[in-house]
Please model this.
Amino acid sequence: MREKTKGYLCLAFICLVWGTTYLFIKIGVKSFPVFIFAGVRSTFAGIILLVLLSFTKVKFQWSWHNLIPNFISGALIMGIGNSFVTWSVRFIPSGLASLICTLIPVFIVILSLFISKEKKLNVMIVSGVVLGIFGMLLVFRDNIKDMANSNYIMGMLIVFLGSVSWAIGTVFSKAKTSETNAFYNAAIQLASGGICCLIYSFFTKEWSSIGEITYSSVLVLLYVTLIGSTAAYAAYQYALTTLPVGVVATYAYINPLIAVILGNLILKERLTWITGSAFILTITGVYLVNKGYNIKRPQNLLNLHH
Model:
């Protein structure tokens, strides 16, 4: 019971912290160059995890066979996925970005269906996808007056592409790195993805504006690096070891709600009944897709002896 109590405390922690990161990122990139911000955050979070792991008995086989898949996953998840979301919140509300990111589990399931022969479409998955699409249509309906702003449209498109890249990287990571330690995988992916972002920053000439960074943006960067990435991920892993996966997965439904509410309260981002309806439809869609994907197919009795 004690271990489970700690697990629930860790789950509450990640729900709260990951729900706040959208708000803090939006505040941070007001003066902090986007790719430098995302790059420093991920690189240092990865390095901190590697240092902490060096004091444990956890082992990792350092070979190109294990490193290359993690490099690729890190580039897709953090280098593209996280940096695109970070870039987008300069032009769209943080709550809206979090709502679009809620579709990541849907993208992951759809990709997995194409890859895995054991999983097939069913009524729940189809219903969930349809609800998710309607939820996104409501989002566009609620923001139709902002569509005249090309930066706004670009922000929505970029966060959508970032979510797709995150999903691709997640599926690739599960397929190629499942035999190595999850903590080391995360650390290497964080660091390699962060390095990708820092490389982008040189091509976008962001370093020329490094002197304009405010003290508040530096504090935000420290928060999302130490608390939002390192501490929250450690809590996430602990929760996975002590609680059922289905219980831990509820964070994906709570995070966007916290992000939308905080965006409205602190940044005065618009919150309407349409936004609320879109949230309910999207979250319900994600739930149905996940539920449908986890349904076990009955064995074919004709193939039991093959």
Confidence is low (pLDDT under 50) at residues 298-306. The chain has one domain: 2-299.
